[in-house]
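Sample entry was shown:
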Amino acid sequence: MHRLIAVIISLVISTIGFSQSQELNNALEEVNKGEYVILEVRMQLEDVFQTLEGNESANLSRIAIFTGKNKDREIVVRGFEGFNQVVKYFNEIEQMGFDLKSSYPIKGNSLLITHYVFRKIKR
């Protein structure tokens, strides 16, 4: 029984270690040390009240990453699965060697857009 628990725990730990999103890796693979990227979290205003569970329907909400080099590959995910998803991306970006420099909100009539500016600090 203890062996089974140990095997399950090791599988979970190894899965967590390799949990970085392939889409995020693809978007950030060509970024060099010292370059900037912008992570954009775009939500419809009604999603603000759904920050835990999100809104995965086909709407205007998305998380996108802009590097200046990834034209037509900007969107990481459409829909909004909740702020746990955003924190997951923050953690993955930091593990890839980026540092958060600033953030700023942009509020429109029906959208709330927040840009998070990261800079690559290590290669």
In short: Residues 22-120 form one domain. The chain has a mean pLDDT of 77. The radius of gyration is 17 Å.
